[in-house]
Specification:
Elements: H1 2-10, E1 26-27, E2 38-40, E3 43-45, E4 48-54, E5 62-68, E6 71-76, E7 79-85, E8 90-92, E9 101-103, E10 168-172, E11 184-189, E12 195-197, E13 206-208, H2 239-249, H3 258-264, H4 268-323
Parallel strand pairs: 8-9, 12-13
Antiparallel strand pairs: 1-4, 2-3, 4-5, 6-7, 7-8, 10-11, 11-12
């Protein structure tokens, strides 16, 4: 019963090892010196207080406070679990917090020792201003900073939920571990959903300022394949017509010129279809030339056979004349 009374009194008393100049208002009970000091790791811990006070006013409720001259330490099972340093930094799992909230947990392959778990549908991390970063996830030991979605889910990163436009930028930083350098933007998704690699202003669904290395590229056709070249009604330009066009324009018919390609770039799908059309036209010309060559060979063979017959007949006449 005595212990219960003591605990109850501690909840309303303002306890202090040393007098402090901070004015917390009118305390409910006066300060008193501790008869028992607090020990941790064999050291005496002092300069802490616990209590509550009233703000002056009719409608002000009582306010509790927890203060420590050199910080506040919280323990469970004899182990330090959380502290507030003298600088106002909160540390969980660490006794030397380096930021306003510093959480340190042991490594875990299944994320059971996660430093922070948020189960609300939306959690807001606000930056200091509209131009600064709102959330920063980093690691300084060479590991990966993961952003994981739910099971069979995705990770969504909208610019914002307000009426302002927003995009997403990806940064990397090269370094040798000695000199200090800033990270550089490598890729971005702008407010319209366009993806840019090596560029700040993507003008298409994917804009790459650099070299693309791929094993295979599949392009959906916006135009039908030029099989119309093989239709009986298709008028195949003659080689003489193509020759006249090339001499006049310095490029193939229906194919962009070098100046046009330099100014507007190349539509890969459309260009491949045009080149395929030219290959099909050349194929038809080769087929026609082969037919002509075959016909010429047959005709030449017949002519040669006829000439051989004529030569043989002349030889026979000459032989008969010589016998007379």
């Amino acid at each position: 019963m005595i212990k219960l009374i003591i605990i109850s009194l501690l909840s309303i008393l303002s306890l202090s090892a040393y007098a402090q100049n901070t004015n917390f208002g009118e305390p409910a009970a006066g300060s008193q010196a501790l008869s028992d000091v607090f020990h941790y790791n064999g050291n005496t811990v002092g300069h802490y207080s616990l209590g509550w006070y009233y703000n002056q006013g009719l409608y002000n409720p009582p306010t509790a406070y927890l203060a420590g001259f050199s910080g506040i330490n919280m323990f469970t099972e004899g182990q330090l679990r959380m502290l507030v340093s003298r600088a106002g930094h909160v540390g969980i799992g660490t006794n030397a917090p380096l930021s306003r909230l510093h959480v340190s947990t042991p490594q875990s392959a299944d994320f059971s020792a996660a430093a922070l778990r948020l189960e609300q549908p939306y959690t807001e991390l606000s930056g200091a201003n509209l131009l600064g970063p709102s959330a920063l996830f980093s690691t300084n030991n060479g590991n990966t900073a993961w952003l994981l979605g739910a099971v069979a889910g995705t990770v969504g990163t909208p610019g914002n939920f307000g009426g302002y436009p927003g995009g997403l930028s990806f940064y990397t930083k090269a370094g040798d571990g000695n000199s200090v350098s800033l990270p550089l933007e490598r890729m971005r998704i702008d407010q319209n959903g366009n993806v840019g690699v090596g560029t700040f202003s993507p003008d298409a669904r994917l804009t790459v300022n650099g070299t693309v290395h791929a094993r295979e590229v599949k392009v959906d056709l916006a135009f039908p394949a030029p099989d119309f070249v093989f239709e009986p009604k298709y008028r195949l330009p003659t080689l003489q017509e193509v020759e006249r066009y090339v001499k006049l324009n310095r490029h193939l018919p229906e194919v962009p010129s070098a100046a046009e390609l330099a100014a507007g770039g190349m539509q890969v799908g459309e260009m491949n279809l045009k080149l395929l059309q030219k290959v099909e036209e050349i194929t038809l010309h080769l087929i026609a030339m082969q037919k002509e060559n075959t016909t010429s060979k047959i005709q030449n063979r017949r002519i040669i056979q006829k000439q051989q017959q004529q030569i043989k007949a002349l030889q026979q006449k000459i032989a008969s004349l010589l016998q007379k």
